[in-house]
Amino acid sequence: MVRYVYDFRDGDRAMADLLGGKGANLAEMTRLGLPVPPGFTVTTEACRAFLATGAEPDGMAEEVSRHLSALEAATGRLLGQSDDPLLVSVRSGARFSMPGMMETVLDIGLTDASVPGLAKVSGNERFAWDCYRRLIQMFGSTVLGVDPALFDQALSVCGMTREAPDDLRADACGLARLVETYKQLVRDATGRDFPQSPTEQLRLAVLAVFRSWNAERARLYRRREHIPDDLGTAVTVQRMVFGNLGADSGSGVAFTRDPATGQPGLYGDYLPDAQGEDVVSGIRDTVSLAELERLDPRSYRQLRDHAQTLERHYRDLCDIEFTIERGTLWMLQTRVGKRTAEAAFAIAAELVGEGLVTADEGLLRVDGDQLGRLMFPRFDTRAAGPEIAHGVPASPGAAAGAVVFDSPTAVRRAADGERVVLVREETTPDDLPGMVAARAVLTGRGGKTSHAAVVARGMGRVCVCGAQDITVDGEARRFTTRAGTVVEEGTVVSVDGSTGAVYAGAVPLVASATMRYLECGEQADCLVAAVARALEHADAVRRLEVRANADTAEDAARARRFGAQGIGLCRTEHMFLGERRTLVEEMILARTEADRDRALAVLLPLQRKDFTDILRAMDGLPVTVRLLDPPLHEFLPERTELAVRVASAEAAGGPPDAHDVELLAAVNRMHEDNPMLGLRGVRLGIVVPGLVAMQVRAVAEAVAERVREGGSPRAEIMVPLVGSVEELRLARAEVTRVLAEVGKETGVPLDCPVGTMIELPRAALTAGRIAEEAEFFSFGTNDLTQTTWGFSRDDVEAAFFSAYLDKGVFAASPFETLDREGVGRLVRIAVAEGRAVRPRLQTGVCGEHGGDPESVHFFHRVGLDYVSCSPFRVPVARLEAGRAAL
Ligand code: ADP
Ligand code: MG
Ligand code: MG
């Protein structure tokens, strides 16, 4: 028999797949003996069954009613019992936290019949009506599908708004009238009465929470966070406790330490006389926990102790939702909390320092994306004008952009390539698309635990919230600062999520402290020291080497400072651009061998100098030089442009420029409809005489020069786009011939390894043959992805990738994160078959994927020797290679 319902006492945190994070952690807190209102959780399995069939699975309803009976017995009251009703909350909770994206309904069980009973036992009539109007509002909108705006309108007709705390002043009579209005609203919108059966309310709410798994915003959030769509949500049913029972009650959110900086010490927001959602929604301004300590020292101390228990137990930063009912503290939720990149490193270092977690675990608590964020530049405050506003620094980073006042506008303008800053009085889950599109989020209300702050931190978006010195007028599309400055839509502002400052205009940027450390080893503060510890540990445990893709001596030097252990890809085509273009043109246009040799002879010393400089910067470390790869016409002027130039000269009556005519003829001759699959890579070397020889000679002479200078150059020659061993054999013969020739001329023995890129499926599938001729394989995963999928990267990304991502064909672009199933399989095959033939074959990857965290883990598992990525990704790859090894 499948079991669909678990009491809190029967679960634990390991059961998050089945009970969702919320249910599993409520069970864990119950086990720890913390004060958790009793309840039970309906499993994600039941949800999946319901979503698949549209009906509750067999037996679920009976189990729910059995657990409800047990809850009723334990509390000594029946759900909705008229003289003293048991009320429950019905809460969503998935395996992975999706803050505010699904539904939760509070105060289930209240009916016309039991409101008086609740009023009597609580001795607070106003409270009873307040619960009832909250129930009808939440149930009406989430379960019955009534437009929430209708309830808000009704509120304001009664002189109350959701935003203003005026409803606190509404008396019982006013609230009772509001309930009547709400009930009429429900009747008008749905054609039926608000359900008066407590158990029917419960059943409908549970199913509505199941359905909320597929709500539009929940789907969008999952896509962004790469959470699978088929997990489903659990539903937790829990006895209500009341924070809206007067001044000695309230609700709050706390972190066991500061989620923005990682600093130890209880941190959070509290709202007296409030129920649940009021806190996170930013509807009313919260007070600090220091204020709670003043209001209710006993509850505060308990909360602090429980926080410490949780942090010790989970051995990590936890966030907590709590409610105080007439001086009694109740714990309503906990989980390992989302945090900024800064806090992640700081907390990991501190917990390792305290001996609470091992250095390995500490490394697993941070990741490459977070490190990447710390490398972003900061505002140069000396160059900034005065602050126009200041709020809570909720999610760090520096971003400038044009202000917009609603989510659709943010999405639209960002799609047009504009940088925007989303400004809202407060955000709601419906603002998610705008938050995704914006560079920064600025809100007028709410603290570090508000919706805007939590979501922004989760996705690494810059966020300043609760800037109380601005007045946001969304309708008029402007905000006003305390000084009276009016900032209209489209005005550029700069938002500093690390300090909370907002400046007018775009403030210039400077390197971050982490970047300065990476560049020159300066350990300015404890955050940077924490980053340094993590990288050192990663270096100590990783098996993968990390190299860089670099084509110039400066890039090579920077990469080396960032910890690169060599160059995995030195693209020679960049040495053919700029002023040298005309020389390349001459070589391409040469009619005779002598002409071509002359052109190549001019290029030779220039390339040699480039290689000498690079080898010097990477002295003692391998430098993998790739022979010229792109089609030659990329070095010639654009075809249409040339044709127009020639034609207009003719139209003007004069003879066109002779050189232009010659060029046009060459361009026409070399034109390819599909150059990506045309004359490029090794094919060029085979077809264009002298090209390979010139490049190899430049490398070889540079090596000889470096040896004469007393250096230890370690050049490797790499042949691109090989599909068959025959191609490689031809190219290699030429390479070896030139190496020997230069060796003899210079007297320096030249034994540069010769290898190939694996970037065609045929190369991967015949890797055993190719390994006969290759001393190393370097997977060019950009081309390998293009050729495996048949995707032209330059065309498909704009054309239809967003549709593919929407429809879930893949979770991430295969050009960003390696497609393990297809492209990855080719990599596995090639490594295995290559090594079978040549056991000491060196293997690496030099596509963009070399710096992508998820892909790095894959390359580690496949057993590659190194990854190579752009210099700025080197620290990220080091960190991830370390994490992959644990
Ligand atoms: P979310 O996943 O969006 O945080 P929750 O299920 O945590 O939704 O519910 C939202 C709020 O409702 C919580 O912050 C909590 O304060 C309140 N709440 C939930 N269950 C109860 C309960 N049994 N008693 C009192 N308040 C509750
Ligand atoms: Mg919650
Ligand atoms: Mg390639």
From TrEMBL:
According to the UniProt entry, its GO molecular function terms are: ATP binding; kinase activity; metal ion binding; pyruvate, phosphate dikinase activity
For activity, the cofactor(s) needed are: Mg(2+)
> One Pfam family name from the record?
PEP-utilizers
- Keyword terms, alphabetized: ATP-binding, Kinase, Magnesium, Metal-binding, Nucleotide-binding, Pyruvate, Transferase
- Where is each Pyruvate phosphate dikinase AMP/ATP-binding domain found? 60-284, 294-344
Source superkingdom: Bacteria
Q: Where is the PEP-utilising enzyme mobile domain?
A: 418-500
Which reaction does this enzyme catalyse, per its entry?
Answer: pyruvate + phosphate + ATP = phosphoenolpyruvate + AMP + diphosphate + H(+)
This protein is called Pyruvate, phosphate dikinase
Q: Which organism encodes this protein?
A: Streptomyces monashensis
